[in-house]
């Protein structure tokens, strides 16, 4: 089972959380997470069958660019919204 590290801004909490989810691909992880915990995370990350433009997903520290990226059983998956702003 992979572990997804979720920033508070995507899950409405006050701190980063972790959840263990089954899945062979990044897309499987988000589908299985939605089935068990509700669609909020998937809706925040996925749009039209792709990872949203300003969301970064890493599997064991390596950036992935699609939902079909493979996920090893014991992987650490991080979901990070892109930061912007300032002058």
Sheet of most strands: 5 strands, mixed
- The domain tally reads 1
Task: Write down the overall mean pLDDT.
Answer: 89
Q: Give the C-level CATH assignment.
A: Alpha Beta
Detail the poorly predicted runs.
none
Separation of the first and last Cα atoms: 42 Å
**Portion of residues in helices?**
25-40%
Secondary-structure element pattern, one letter each: EHEHHEEEEE
Structural class: alpha+beta
What's the tally of helices?
3
Shape: globular
User: Over all CA atoms, what is the radius of gyration?
Assistant: 12 Å
What spatial order of strands do you see in the largest sheet?
2-1-7-5-6
Number of strands: 7
CATH architecture, by name, is Roll
* The named CATH superfamily: Beta-grasp domain
Q: Kindly estimate the percentage of residues that lie in beta strands according to DSSP.
A: 25-35%
CATH topology: Ubiquitin-like (UB roll)
Structure description:
The protein is an alpha+beta fold. The chain has one domain: Beta-grasp domain (Ubiquitin-like (UB roll), Roll). Helices cover 25% and strands 32% of the residues. It contains 3 helices and 7 strands. A 5-stranded mixed beta sheet has the order 2-1-7-5-6. Strand 3 (46-47) and strand 4 (50-51) form a beta hairpin. It is globular and about 40 Å long. It comes from Halorubrum pallidum. Pfam families: ThiS. This is MoaD/ThiS family protein.
């Amino acid at each position: 089972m992979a572990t997804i590290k979720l920033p508070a801004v995507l899950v409405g909490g006050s701190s980063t959380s972790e959840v263990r989810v089954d899945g062979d691909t990044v897309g499987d992880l988000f589908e299985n997470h939605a089935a068990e915990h509700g669609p909020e995370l998937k809706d925040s990350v996925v749009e039209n069958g792709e990872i949203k433009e300003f969301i970064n997903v890493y599997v064991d520290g390596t950036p992935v660019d699609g939902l079909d990226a493979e996920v090893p059983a014991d992987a650490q998956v991080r979901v990070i919204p892109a930061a912007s702003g300032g002058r």
